[in-house]
Amino acid sequence: MEVAALRPLPCPTCGQRHDLGVWLDQPGRRWLHGRVVEAVCAGCGAASQLELANGTMAIGSVAPGPEGSFRPDLRLPQPGLDVEASPAGLLVTLGQRTWATPMHARR
Known about the structure:
Blueprint: E1 8-10, E2 17-19, H1 20-25, E3 30-33, E4 36-40, E5 47-53, E6 56-62, E7 70-77, E8 81-86, E9 89-94, E10 97-102
Antiparallel strand pairs: 1-2, 3-4, 4-5, 5-6, 6-7, 8-9, 9-10
């Protein structure tokens, strides 16, 4: 996949736009539930929630609670995005890159 095909998602806190690979490369990424990942903005360090599905991604927030529903602020198509969810976590593939985000211990 060519870099030009990557769609940037804006950080709700600082407004900087990063493609999905940048969001997923940051330390502190964790799987919340279903297809929702918490990731950190490379610009300001604020945590944001991302909902990932085959061919689409969204940035937004999660309602309070153990299995809170995701509320998208912005949803964008992302050609080439493949997402596999399992009880153990999330496997995300975009172009030649793959990220595995295991389930975190619940507090």
